[in-house]
Every structure is written in C-alpha cells, then in structure tokens.
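Format notes (please read before filing issues)

Several people have asked whether sequences and structure tokens are stored in separate files. They are not. Every record keeps both together, in the order shown below: the sequence lines, then the token lines. Line labels are part of the format and must not be stripped during preprocessing.
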Amino acid sequence: MLCERETYAILPLVLAKQDLRMQRIPTDLDQVKQTLLDAALSAGACKAAVARPDGAAVDASRLERWLERHPDLSYMTRTAWTRQDARRSVPACVSILSVAFPIPLGDPPIPQDKGIWALVAGYARGPDYHIWIRKRLDEAMKQACRNLDVTIHYRIAVDSFPLMERSLAVSCGLGAIGRNHNLIVPGCGSAVVLAEVLLDVPLRPDPPVPWDPCGTCRRCLDACPTGALRDDGDFDIASCLAYATTEQKDKIPTTTAQQAGLRLFGCDTCQLVCTHNAAQIRLTTRNATKNKAAVERHDEPAHDASMSEWPSAWVDITSWAALSTKGLARRLRGTALAHQGPIRLLRNAAVAAAAQMKQSGAKSLLDALARHVNPLVRAQAISALHPDSTGHDHDDQ
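Then the structure lines:
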C-alpha cells in the first residue's frame, strides 16, 4: 500500500503581476480562463484545458498497481500520494492549466559524414524543452495578467513537480491514452510534452472527453522492438528501450543493448507508426528541409514555437570518450540530455558504438570507453566488446 503519512514540502505559488500597490482579485473567471488558455496557445502549445487539482485521483489505484509491479521506481513511490492531488504539496492551488506542446517527430537519414552516430528521441533534440517551455509559459502568464489587470499566483511545472500529468490531461479532456501508453491529443497526436500551471483562481474545469483514439489499430504493438507493449494493455517497462536509455541506472543487458541499436536517448518507434502523428512527422520533415536550406545559405535556422525541426537528432559520439566527465557535462549544458548525466550517456554511447562495429572508429571508441574511470561505462563497453565471452552479464557498477 502507498504511504499517505509521508510529509512533503509545502511549496508557494509565485505572483504573476509585479509592482502592485494593491492586488486586484479576478472577478470574471470565465474571462480569466479564456485569456489564460489563449496565452498558453500563444506560447506555442497545441492545446490547453483546465483540470481540478485532484483530477488524477481517479487513477490512484492504477498507479498503486503499477508501482507494486515496478519497485525499482522508488522515487515515484515516495511521491505517489502527492501526485494524486496537487493541493497536498501546494495548498493554495485550486485549479490547474494542463498544456500540451508539440515536439519534433521523425528519424532523419543517418549523416554521411564520417563518425560514430547515435540517435536522440524527438523530445530531447535541440534546446532543453524544460527551459524553453517554462520561459514561454511564464512570459505568457505575466502578459495575460497585465492584459486582465488582475493578480494571479501560479507555479509552472515542466517535469519538475510530482503530478500524474497524463491522468490530469485526460481528466480535463486534453486527450486520451493510446495503446502506446502515451497521451494522444486530438489534432496533435502523441508527439507532445506536457506542462502544468498551478493556479490560485477557481477556474471552471473542463470535462473529460469520451474518445477511443486507437480502435482496432495495433501498429504500435506490432512495431515495438522489444514487445514492451502488450496485447492485454499492460506495459513492460523493464524491456522498454526508452526506459533502458533514459531511466535505467545500471548496465543495459546484452539483449536489450542489441535491440537498442543506434538509440542514444529514448525511442520513438511506437509514435512513428501511430496514424495520429502523421501530420507532425510531415511538419518536422518540412521544417528540417527549411533549416537545411538556411544552413546552406549561412542563415540561422528558424526555431519555431513547436521546435519541430531536427536539431541534434544525430549525435557524433566519437569525441565524447576524450572528454572528462565535467567536460561532457559542459558540452551537454542547455539540452535535455544534460538531465541524463554524462555517465549514463557514455554507457549508452557504448551501446550505439557496438551497433556500428563495421564502421571505422567504433572499435577504438569502445576501447577508450572500456578504460573509462567510471565502472558502469567500463562494464557496458567491455560487454559490447566481448558479448559472447560469458553466459551472463556482469553487473559492474
């Protein structure tokens, strides 16, 4: 059972309108709601809706069953109780703006330049989405409050707060959960990342929308490289390549590493085959073509609000082994890859290099990683160099 007695930090909401001698309380809440929804769209969101602070409570039992099956996710167990109701950690919160932002989706051709290349999932390409979404939402919120001439306290969460984001989004009709276990937003697909704005104004919540986004389609189940998506609707996180390359802390087992191939961070396979994402893939392709032409003209590539390009889709990892841990951390600064940390990324680099052993330089890269100061990196590289040396994986960490 989940513990409900653990205490959590009580976090304040911040003031949206500054330099006020007297705070003006909102009165026309419907106008406030519409203005804030419009502000979210102006910040680059594809859809926004208003949820109750306890909108995720309906999925509490599902979360409990999930965590019982996956005891390795201890950080979620510690915050499970507060994830169900935002008021348990932010008592001033009375409504939540649930917001979906589109992200790049599509696998561009592997570069023809010499190098050892590894692929980054769409959401982690380019500037760190945690930073630019927070900045854009903050600017939009402040401008909305200036336009309304009211005082609103709020807190923006972009993967930075213990919330059941998808459950909240479903509770207010933002979308529905598909067979790929991602939130599918009508008209936007599942190529989205979620953000929330916790508010101290009681806005009218939007109702859930009964919608089956998948019907009889099972493309994602058939395409999943490891069978992590199950026919019975379950999801085997232990065999998911996205989990292995982003969340798994220890060495990636040999079989999983071989299935990961060139993936350095994340896996978009179940989203690439989803029919709801066809429009976003076309947009990503079109913007990538525009940016390539801009580079050839020596212009700056255009970074639109949706970040629907292919910046840093492929990473040349050949130089990583020569960098110190601090040096690699500096290189990754300002990207979503920085949240992974250099050690696990070097572990993943060994996996990607092993998939390119026929390429010049792959063996040298693995040899260098096998001499790395960190035991996790060494273990992954040695396993890649000698996959058949033993009948089991070494758990050298």
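For reference, the curators noted about this record: The radius of gyration is 22 Å. The longest helix spans residues 129-148.
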